[in-house]
Design brief:
Number of strands: 25
Helix content: under 10%
Structural class: mainly beta
Order of helices and strands: HEEHEEEEEEEEEEEEEEEEEEEEEEE
Strand order of the largest sheet: 1-2-25-24-23
Shape: globular
């Protein structure tokens, strides 16, 4: 893998009427027509490592039945969109999105190509869902920055618990690993680690004003690797901070700046099985990839309006190994995908981008 990849800018200017776009939409069921439509990172002559596969912003664009196309022709099914997604996580056959504008959690059923919305009312109602994570039982853990709680829902959508007392915290990002779940706290400038079974607070990362390196300013998103190390996007400090399994500060990745290896507005963060760290930057519209020691490997994305793989205010990122089969049809000839990378965009026409990490056949 090259140390720093070149940015790819590909202009695409599709022109179609609204009805034609609706009728013909089905990007999850059709293959790219010509080789020049492939968007890869880095671009030739470097060996491509990541390919933009497809994107979707509605059920219709998944090719599902009963989307906007049925609405247009007078059927009783309504248009099912994604409006302003932030957090994203995956499970076998599904993608889960926190959609901040309507205040729901969207389940994207990849097999049926359908959307389901979790939008409870009453005491279980969500006000501003930001982050989402799943446990082995399929329960959804949702951070709500307005309710200032972590809401735990069963697979059927029943509210099981609400973690956090009044004025205790302002949760944002969330991650699960082993028998713990981790929540970034914007109010107290820390990460909170909880026992998954008892939901009791185990520890927080340093809030010591004298700890210049370990202190967090605006912790927005969090990921945890196989060894329990905690990776935090500190948006206010323009960096990623890494802690051990008990919350002790270890090191930083990147610093303030617009150059490769630096951050302007780091948000979503993920760690793959090889210990590589992925960080999306909402200001530059790119995702950067670092090795296990924090060294920049490459970056990908396209901040250009309408370009294939464009990112607009990217917020969340997730690495996925279980759903490759649903997207294999998009992979360029001569290559396979080792895993998928999902990125949410809060603006633009591509609300969820899907990338593949490539290897030659």
């Amino acid at each position: 893998m090259k140390t720093i990849a070149r940015r790819i800018i590909q202009a695409t200017t599709p022109v179609a009427s609204l009805i034609a776009a609706v009728v013909l939409a089905g990007c999850a069921t059709s293959k790219p027509k010509t080789p020049h439509t492939y968007s890869v990172y880095p671009q030739p002559p470097d060996e491509p490592r990541i390919q933009f596969l497809t994107s979707f912003s509605s059920e219709t664009e998944l090719g599902g039945q009963g989307g906007f196309s049925k609405f247009v022709v007078g059927k009783d099914q309504a248009y099912r969109p994604v409006w302003k997604p932030y957090g994203v996580t995956t499970a076998k056959g599904a993608v889960y999105l926190c959609d901040t504008q309507p205040g729901n959690v969207t389940t994207v059923d990849l097999a049926k190509r359908r959307f389901r919305y979790l939008r409870p009312t009453g005491l279980a109602a969500m006000k501003m869902p930001i982050g989402v994570a799943l446990d082995r039982a399929g329960n959804r853990y949702v951070t709500d920055t307005v309710r200032e709680q972590v809401l735990i829902f069963s697979p059927k959508g029943e509210l099981l618990a609400a973690v956090g007392a009044k004025d205790e915290m302002k949760p944002c990002g969330i991650a699960l690993r082993g028998d713990r779940f981790y929540v970034t706290d914007l109010k107290n400038h820390c990460v909170r680690a909880y026992d998954l079974k008892t939901r009791q607070l185990l520890f927080t990362t340093s809030k010591d004003e004298a700890d210049a390196h370990g202190k967090l300013f605006s912790p927005t998103n969090v990921a945890v690797d196989r060894d329990g190390r905690i990776y935090v996007s500190d948006t206010g400090a323009f960096t990623v901070k890494v802690y051990d399994a008990e919350g002790k500060f270890l090191r930083m990745i990147g610093e303030r700046g617009l150059e490769a290896g630096r951050f302007a507005l780091p948000k979503g963060i993920a760690v793959d099985r090889e210990g590589r760290t992925y960080v999306v930057d909402a200001a530059t519209g790119l995702a950067q990839v670092f090795d296990a020691e924090g060294k920049l490997l490459m970056f990908f994305g396209d901040p250009k309006a309408g370009g294939a793989g464009a990112m607009y205010l990217p917020a969340g990122i997730a690495v996925d190994h279980e759903n490759i089969s649903f997207f294999e049809k998009f992979v360029m000839p001569g290559h396979k995908v080792d895993y998928l990378i999902f990125v949410t965009n809060q603006a633009g026409t591509q609300k969820v981008n899907v990338y593949g990490f490539l290897r030659k056949k």
